[in-house]
Amino acid sequence: MRGARAGSDGKGGVVAVAYADAERGASLAPVALVEVAARAGATGVLLDTADKGGPGLRGLVEAGALAAWVAETHQTGLLVALAGKLTVDDLPFVRDAGADVAGVRGAACVGGRTGTVSADRVRLLKRVVHGIHHEDTKIGSS
Asked: Can you spell out the DSSP letters for 1-67?
């Protein structure tokens, strides 16, 4: 991480990544990564999922445990981003956990994470993040 920071022009920051399904990927456990990222001068951490065919973040982490991890991470001064097969219905879970950023590529695209970004989906995601009910329209992860 220090090498990445040294190679930047000072206008950006380094965000370290941990995986909620760390046992499936080559990653430090989320708690350990926070400590390493803070010591190395990272700007933030991203908690994601390594196995894109497996369960999403919400299926791997209980809401209370996630909120506690986010709060502990914020205490170190790091920004917190959450991702991992998030759907529009997962955004209140992410928002309530206290995350600074939600990674919603699949939910923002028609056809899933490798599809085309949809302006309508992005507008709906924005409304949900801001707490506006979305009972008329639903977006799945497809």
From this structure: -HHHHHTS-SSS--EEEEETTGGGTT---HHHHHHHHHHHT-SEEEEE-S-TTS--HHHHS-HHHHH
Helix (H) or strand (E) holding 110: strand 109-110
Instruction: Show the domains of the chain with their CATH numbers.
Output: 2-129 (3.20.20.70)
pLDDT tens digits, 86-105: 999 999 999 999 999 999 99
Q: Closest by alpha carbon to 17, among 78, 58, 87? A: 78
What is the reported pTM? Answer: 0.83
Cα 130 from Cα 14, distance rounded (Å): 27
Taking only the tens place, the pLDDT of each residue in 112-141 is 888 999 999 999 999 988 876 555 444 443
**Amino acid at the residue 53:** G
